[in-house]
Design brief:
This protein is an all-alpha fold and about 190 residues long. The protein is built from ten helices and no strands. Helix 8 (about 120-140) runs antiparallel to helix 9 (about 145-165). The relative contact order is 0.06.
Length: about 190
């Protein structure tokens, strides 16, 4: 089935590499946790790889590379709901860390996109709405990133309109499109 059993010598080398990474975890958590996750992936242990990346995020929540690797591995494993659950858990533990809100929003958009692709339009709308809320909260927590957050809010609102169109609900499509135009106009006026 395409799976090659890890040889004893390979497992020993991997264990030695992981042991050598231990002191580096505090000094350079982005790189060390990412390398540890890659070692576990090569050993065919994706759950351990995810655990390493999550530990890295707990250690250094502002480590964007850790978040990107964490999200990509969940996607590769087809675990977008688990990804959203992980961010919900991280947010419960650290509600004042804005970047966790950002990445939870991204995870929710991924779920919404999947649901839309499967024809679950109401589920997609619910997840796009939750994601838009996360990006809105992030915008209020980090005013310096208001423009990027506003773009994601607009993407979520546009996606809701797109789903309404896919489902044949033309009235909601027009209402959401009008709301999107008005929201963007208000945002531009606030910038001036």
């Amino acid at each position: 089935r395409g799976f090659v059993k890890i040889q004893k010598q390979t497992a020993e080398c991997a264990a030695a590499a992981l042991t050598k990474l231990e002191p580096i975890l505090q000094l350079a958590p982005d790189a060390a946790y990412t390398i540890a996750a890659q070692v576990y992936q090569q050993l065919g242990q994706p759950d351990q790889a995810l655990a390493q990346l999550e530990r890295g995020i707990r250690s250094r929540p502002d480590g964007n590379n850790l978040h990107l690797q964490f999200q990509q591995l969940h996607l590769d494993l087809g675990q977008t709901r688990a990804l959203a659950g992980a961010y919900a858990r991280l947010l419960r533990e650290n509600p004042t860390v804005p970047i966790l809100r950002w990445y939870e929003g991204r995870a929710l958009v991924m779920i919404a996109d999947e649901l839309r692709g499967k024809g679950n339009y109401q589920g997609a709308i619910d997840y796009y709405t939750k994601a838009g809320s996360d990006f809105g909260q992030y915008r209020s927590m980090v005013p310096a990133h208001a423009e990027s957050a506003a773009q994601w809010v607009a993407i979520c609102e546009l996606s809701i309109a797109r789903v309404a169109c896919d489902s044949g609900d033309r009235k909601s499509t027009r209402l959401n499109s009008s709301h999107l135009v008005i929201s963007y106009a208000v945002f531009c006026l606030k910038k001036k």
